[in-house]
Amino acid sequence: MNSELSRQKVEISLDGVCKVFGKRGRQVTVLQDITFDVHQNEFVSLLGPRGSGKSTLLRIMADLLQPSSGQILMEKEHPREVRLRRKFGIVLQQPSLFEWRTVQENVELPLEVLGQNRSDYRHTVDQLLETVGLTKFKDYYPWQLSVGMQQRVAIARALTLDPPILFMDEPFSALDVFTKDKLQVELLAIKTKTKKTIVFVSHSVSEAVFLSDRIIVLTAHPGRIHSIHCVDLGEERTAQIRESEPFQTLSADIQTSIYQGQAPKTE
Ligand SMILES: Nc1ncnc2c1ncn2[C@@H]1O[C@H](COP(=O)(O)OP(=O)(O)OP(=O)(O)O)[C@@H](O)[C@H]1O
Question: Which residues cross the membrane (predicted)?
Answer without folding.
Answer: none
